[in-house]
Amino acid sequence: MRYTDGELLALSGIQHFCFCQRQWALIHVERQWEENLWTAEGHLVHKRVDDPFFTESRGDIIISRAFPLVSYALGLYGIADVVEYIRSEDGVSLPDHEGLWVMRPVEYKRGKPKIDERDEVQLCAQAMCLEEMFGIYVDRGDFYYNEIRRRVPLQLSDALRNRVYALSEEMHDLFKKGVTPPAGTSRKCNLCSLQNVCMPKLTKKGLSVRKYVRKHVKEACVEDG
Fold first, then answer.
1. 108 phi, psi to nearest 5 deg
2. For 148-173, what is each residue's pLDDT tens digit?
3. Is there a contact between 65 and 82 (Cβ–Cβ < 8 Å)?
4. CA gap 86, 103 in Å, rounded
5. Residue 205 is part of a domain; what is its CATH number?
6. CA 213/CA 218 separation, integer angstroms
7. Is 185 helix (H, G, I), strand (E, B) or coil?
8. Parallel, antiparallel, or unpaired for β 76-94 and 9-10?
9. Phi and psi, residue 67, nearest 5°
10. In angstroms, what is the C-alpha Rg of the chain?
11. pTM of the full structure
């Protein structure tokens, strides 16, 4: 299946979706958002690299920042923090540059490596966008984790690619239905940027945040009247 421009979803959302489907729906379906310490620090980390007009060369590496991405197979669009062009005999030619080059996405993160796959699926989706856009194969991407101050490489396996396809399909399905999954509770809720608007009590009635607020405002007006 190939998606149209009007059906494209934010690539960054695949990380939210992998972490918690309800969190993703609150952000991308209901347009709810709340800043916390972790998201604020994350914005600062990305601000250092998100300059779309800045390209630099370091020996056999060309660095391009804030690189636009799209995949009509996944139905996702977004921006890679950094895409590196690395001189290689197995690469492709670049305009105005001699030799052959391979492309590698680099994603900057505030913290340290996660125990789940939320970061991995985001970086893999970026690589899959590059593959579709340029007709190339990307076998690896890198993370730079600000907390540990070093890079962590990621090999892009077939299993990880299949996981990205599956998650993107689920995202599109929920988005078309306009569905927000019911709230649950787990240890990861303490790290969620939407903890104060998620409202786990909604689970029993299956209401969206908007409907929940509207319902209680209506009840309050009736009581005041």
1. -95, 130
2. 999 999 999 999 999 999 999 999 99
3. yes
4. 6
5. 3.90.320
6. 9
7. coil
8. parallel
9. -85, 120
10. 20
11. 0.81
